[in-house]
From TrEMBL:
Pfam families: MMR_HSR1
InterPro entries documented for this protein: GTP-bd, P-loop_NTPase
Family matches, as Gene3D superfamilies: P-loop containing nucleotide triphosphate hydrolases
Source organism per UniProt: Corynebacterium doosanense CAU 212 = DSM 45436
UniProt-recorded name of the protein: G domain-containing protein
A GO molecular-function annotation: GTP binding
Length: 488
């Protein structure tokens, strides 16, 4: 199903490429003045030119590292209770494979990566700021990932590490290349109050925040209930999305275990044969296989070791619902089924096609915010103001300013009636789309709708609006007038 906010992929890709070039040129101009502006510009340039980065956050044991493995289609993130899972880890495409361990003292030590995830930090955890891992991985080219140790957990140190990276680091221009551009939040329900408070501190907008219902294959009564748990999870995600009222971009149900196992080579022919041997069983017999100490009493020759391996790889839902795929097509069919039902393809598409676009707009706003700060505080403010004025004069910056108005309006007035209009304008690749009409709408119809919406926006000047809303209203009027002129 196509989400209403999805727009022309070519349009979004073109904006991403154009803004990246424009912002990079702005950073070059900023640094040309020398002094400390050179260092500031270098950090901003690194941030501008790297792939947008998604931070994966959630409570302890929410399945964050499992999701990272699924999204990268490799077992690169350690899971379980290893000390490495307690450190914030950045993952980027790069060769040779290596880990750079950044200490709180500013020192960086390099550790070569072998097959599999990093297992030794090389220094005490309480001395580590974060780990940056580089791996030759095609899935990391459009989006980098940040795996975090948890928020609102029983372990205060874990949350402090996450905050130090995602919140404190985001306010430090010297660490601009480490900033997160968007967030995937894992939970089994709508965000709790402490989680909402944390998410609000990240400085994201609803367009750069995706909520994931983790372990969707265990929702409802679970794998052996009367209703498919994934159906229950999809219905539940719709309710949460409605409850949040536009505070997140999407709520997506996901089985991280199925996705990770499907992509990381854990589905072998032997495992598929073992699962296929359970295909003839009814629900009660299969439940006995899962619960009995000796499942061979139900399926002769079937061992507890085989059963446990199946549960570790596909979970109870995979055992229950994946038997037919394994029996009909072996490992290939089973892995394909796991990928299809897991929800990982939907999440990947949303991140790469939609959130990546919004993340670049968010990144551009950060550059403009930094220029605005420097234009009043830096000794060489005249040079900064020149760079700022040239940058703001570029037509593509109109979209960035609309996005900033969206951010500021949501922050000050989260129920503002202007937010849907701003969201639509940010995505509009045509005059018709800017007023919610199909691309093939007739020009007179588009003009009539523009006239109507312009009139409504102008009448809003008589209403009590917040400062952010008033600025957003003006920007929307300018954008609609631009589309009106382009119609001729």
């Amino acid at each position: 199903m196509t989400h209403p906010d999805q727009d022309n992929t070519a349009f979004k890709s073109g904006i991403v490429a154009h803004l990246t070039t424009l912002l990079s040129q702005g950073c070059d101009a900023l640094g040309s003045a020398g002094g400390d502006l050179t260092d500031i510009a270098e950090q901003l340039r690194d941030m501008v030119n790297r792939p947008p980065r998604v931070a994966v956050v959630g409570r302890l044991k929410a399945g964050k590292s499992t999701l990272v493995n699924a999204l990268t289609q490799h077992h690169i993130a350690a899971t379980g209770s290893l000390e490495c899972t307690m450190a914030v880890s950045l993952y980027s495409d790069g060769a040779p494979a290596r880990a750079e361990v950044h200490g709180l003292d500013g020192e960086v030590s390099r550790v070569p990566l072998r097959d599999g995830p990093l297992t030794d930090l090389g220094r005490p955890l309480d001395e580590v700021s974060h780990v940056h891992q580089f791996l030759p991985n095609a899935q990391l080219r459009p989006l980098g990932l940040i795996d975090t140790p948890g928020t609102a957990t029983l372990t205060v140190e874990n949350e402090q590490r996450t905050r130090r990276m995602l919140i404190d680091g985001a306010s430090d221009t010297r660490r601009a290349s480490e900033w997160a551009d968007s967030v995937v939040f894992l939970s089994d329900s709508a965000p709790r109050e402490d989680e909402r408070a944390f998410l609000s501190e990240l400085g994201m907008t609803p367009l750069t925040l995706v909520s994931v219902l983790s372990r969707a294959d265990s929702f409802g009564e679970g794998a052996f209930g009367e209703r498919d748990p994934l159906d229950f999870a999809r219905e539940h995600s719709g309710r949460i999305e409605k409850e949040l009222g536009g505070a997140v971009y999407r709520v997506i149900p996901l089985s991280g275990l199925l996705a990770e196992s499907a992509f990381t080579g854990r589905v072998t022919n032997d495992l598929a044969r073992e699962l296929a041997s359970l295909a003839p069983l009814n629900r009660e017999q299969l439940l006995d296989v899962v619960e009995l100490d000796d499942p061979g009493r139900i399926v002769p020759g079937f061992t507890a070791e085989q059963r446990n391996r199946l549960l570790d790889t596909v979970g109870e839902y995979g055992v229950m619902a994946g038997r037919a795929a394994a029996a009909s097509g072996g490992a290939v069919a089973l892995a394909g089924w796991m990928r299809e039902v897991s929800g990982v393809d939907t999440l990947t598409r949303v991140l790469v096609e939609d959130v990546r676009y919004y993340a670049v707009l968010q990144r551009a706003v950060r550059v403009l915010d930094e220029l605005a700060e420097l234009s009043t505080s830096h000794p060489n403010r005249e040079h900064v103001r020149w760079v700022q004025s040239v940058t703001l004069a570029q037509p593509a910056i109109n979209l960035v300013m609309l996005y900033r108005s969206y951010r500021d309006t949501f922050s000050s007035t989260p129920d503002s009636r202007l937010l849907p209009l701003l969201r639509r304008a940010i995505n509009a690749a045509s005059a018709a789309a800017s007023v919610g009409l199909p691309r093939d709408a007739a020009t007179p119809e588009i003009r009539a709708r523009l006239d109507q919406e312009l009139g409504e926006l102008q009448q809003m000047a008589m209403l009590p609006l917040s400062a952010a809303e008033d600025e957003a209203r003006e920007r929307l009027i300018q954008e609609m007038q631009r589309w009106y002129r382009e119609l001729g």
